[in-house]
Amino acid sequence: MERSTLDLWVGLFVVAGLGALTILALKVGNMGSFAGAETYQLSAQFSNIGGLKPRAAVKSSGVVVGRVAGIVFDNEKFMAKVIMNIETRYQFPKDTSASVLTAGLLGEQYIGLEGGAEDAKLANGDTIKLTQSAVVLEKLISQFMFSKAAEGSPK
Question: Of the chain's two ends, which shows fewer C-beta atoms within 10 Å, N or C?
């Protein structure tokens, strides 16, 4: 094999490796969705969103149905307003509930949607009324510690 042919194959291998690393970095950063799927926008208000970030997944039954488009603070209600882009092929009833969930014990946070039983569907710009905020591990630990301390104190 000639030197120039060998150099060409090494160059192609390096370019393929860099391409694979780029795709991996986009997947890890939740930027891997290149599809220009049609979406509609929903919003939900939470008293605590934990570590939820824009571009986080919106899942229903473990299937990614959309992404978090943005997070803003509502100065009147003192709550976080989460704006979600949902793919139009997924339609949810008006009584759908939204929860801030964590993948694993210390994994990334995402929005979980659980469909209700109503016939009417959510439309672009609607707000999900039934929400459940993020479970904050520190708050759970402190509640457990204070309850154990109250049990052990003499009356």
Answer: C
- Cα distances (Å, whole numbers) of residue 74 to 20, 27, 84, 124, 134: 41, 31, 16, 20, 17
What are the φ/ψ torsions at residue 147 (nearest 5 degrees)? Answer: -70, -40
Distance, CA of 81 to CA of 70 (rounded, Å): 8
* DSSP helix/strand/coil, 112: strand
State how far the Cα of 132 lies from the Cα of 134, in Å rounded to an integer: 7
17: its two tokens: 């490796």
Token pair for 14 = 């390096």
Q: What's the rounded Cα separation, in Å, for the pair 65 and 29?
A: 17
In angstroms, the CA 85 to CA 40 distance is 6
Note the pLDDT tens digit of each residue in 21-75.
Answer: 988 887 776 555 545 679 999 999 999 998 899 999 999 999 999 999 999 999 9
